[in-house]
Amino acid sequence: MPAGRLAFLRPFLFVLLMALLVPVMVRGINNLSDARYCAGMGADSLTFRLDPAFADYLTPEAMQELSGWVAGVQLIGEFDTLPVAEINALVQQCGLQAVLLHRRRPADELAQLTVPALKLTSWIPDMMPEDVDLRFREQAPHYQGFVLATPPFPLPNAAAMLRLTEQARTYTIWLGAGFAPDTLRTLADTVRPAGIVLQGGDEIKPGLRDFDEMEAVFEQLETE
């Protein structure tokens, strides 16, 4: 396997390099190096921040330019406050297969979406387990799954992880790699989330990107 930081130099050799234990979602793709590298390493989906409410949002034209270089991955748009009608227009324009919503929306708005929606969800350390269950149970009919991308600090204790494991058996829950930075294989085997979420990064300069950290995550999830 090529060194991570050199992988983007081989644009015509991006076949599926790895079989992974669980699907991988890479959020916030904003450059061609990330798009091609993650697709080539076997990522299941890439997200693009398309809502002007985000300071680092991409224009539809920029997103289309990036996605035109990759194949075999699900394209997901991230949205915060943009109205549903405008989200649907971007879904069609950019060829999105799903959306990742940052804010909870009424059921009637969600019903108007033309593609499935995932919900970005925060870990609330002091929230009672029954309240967490209620939150998932109320929202589950309207979302394809929940994305807990950012782990709390400190990390959840053993009891909290056991509860999360039980919830992952009932609901479709994606977890950020930071929930188990050094033991992702164990997390994948025990909690069995729907997938692992990584965060894309910025290029050092156009065409130059250090993939060492991301490569280490993909290696942990590679099937043996």
TrEMBL record:
Domain of life: Bacteria
InterPro entries reported for this sequence: Aldolase_TIM, RibuloseP-bd_barrel
Protein name (database record): Phosphoribosylanthranilate isomerase
Originating organism: Hymenobacter metallilatus
Source species taxonomy: Bacteria, Pseudomonadati, Bacteroidota, Cytophagia, Cytophagales
